[in-house]
């Protein structure tokens, strides 16, 4: 049993770190990983992230660098850019942002000034910290206005979005978030943004793989700027991209460099190129649609067991569950599920009366288990394991959890992961 690709040099030089890597590979193999922002990358992506490209500094852009020796790095970055434009049908792509938050910060730097008004989804309703939430720099440096979901529907209240936009005339409007289980209506957001003269930023970090695979409508042609991480459903390395139309491309590039960061991480850029190459294959579309099929099957199985899903279900990879009717809070449930072999996160639900660090809900997603090969017919069993664990928490029955974990390990033995040989 070992990490793949093998790490003999690391094991010889630093057995302590190597041991932790090996243990983490085994942990990822043995658990049903339902964290909505996680996935398994291919071994090719893993190999790309561990190459000598990490040795090279490359401030600037292809053909316009500040250091010499860029002949091959320029080709790597250009390849990633062209693949991003092709996969998403975008006019421009910047593959240098280090992660999703800096990508969003670049949109602020490019198209707003400190103190300007920005409109984003409230964090408790499913938005992201960088969409203007109070503890984020974006909520401190700009004037945030927040929209949410309807109390009865659990879906984005577009009438509220329109009313707030008309009243406050924001410079930026963010569409997307971190806990949205339903299809994002990009054309409706675009209409509102046009009406008030705002730049529409579509944050598709969670759904980029679904968009690439045709399992979710694309914001291209509706949002002038699109930000995304490259992991999650896109199944690439821990990085980010910004897509834009040609009109906004120069401002985006200037905001990323020199506005926010120095040299890009070239090993990550190469891995992004590899992941985008994978996303261009027909099999990726099958994978993207399978993610949604698994999520819908899991949602149906949980509803049948009496679980309260925000918005009543899902259109994408993500489920948000309010555990109030089960008499269990989200945090102890998530921690117990981890001990039982199911990895997810506790999460605030809309109109949650509990505090964010001890909320009422849990959030889960099906990207990683889909990559692993689980299908809709497996989801009733996954729901049964979740239900048994939540019931055990309600009864303070810790002894029930090891048996569930053993059953999960037995099932997963037939579904190997990239990056680990059992």
From TrEMBL:
CDD domains recorded for this chain? SHMT
- Site, as annotated: Plays an important role in substrate specificity: 231
**Residue ranges occupied by any Serine hydroxymethyltransferase-like domain in the UniProt entry:** 11-386
Query: Which EC numbers characterise this protein's activity in its record?
Result: 2.1.2.1
Hey, what's the signal peptide range on this chain?
none
Q: Which residues lie in coiled coils? A: none
- Can you tell me which residues bind (6S)-5,6,7,8-tetrahydrofolate? 123, 127-129
What name does the UniProt record give this protein? Answer: Serine hydroxymethyltransferase
Query: What organism does this protein naturally occur in?
Result: Amycolatopsis minnesotensis
The UniProt gene name for this protein comes to glyA
